[in-house]
Each structure stands twice: as C-alpha cells, then as structure tokens.
Amino acid sequence: MADLKHLDQITERVERLLLRHEELQRTNQLLMEQVQSLQHERDSLKSRLQAARGRIDALLERLPPMAEESASGGDA
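^ DUF904 domain-containing protein, sequence as received from the core. Prediction below:
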C-alpha cells in the first residue's frame, strides 16, 4: 500500500511539473513576442531620430555663421 501511495504522489508531482512546464512555455512565447515588438518599436524610433537629426543638421546649415552676427553688432 505504501508503494502505491508513493507512486500516486510521484505521478501527481509529475503532472504538476508538466502543467508548470506548459505554463512556462506559454509565458516564454509571450515574452519573446513582446521582445520582438519592442525591438521593432526601438528600430522605428531610431529611424525617426536619425531623420530628425538630418532635418536639424539641414536647418543648422542654413543659419548664418555666428561670426557674421557678432561683427554686424547684433540686435541685442
């Protein structure tokens, strides 16, 4: 009888472990999807940042040099 009870306990533990394993696999899959989504968002933000920097650089090139502003007396 003790052996049968012990076998039932082992069977129950194995079943719980299998359920836990399945839960962890689902959680892992969800986390991997979240990582992919965040990587895509990061790449998109990097691209937008690069485009914004390009526009700022273009605007800065259109500004007159600082030395000329100082020489003209400025409007301060």
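Residues 8 and 14 are 10 Å apart (CA to CA).
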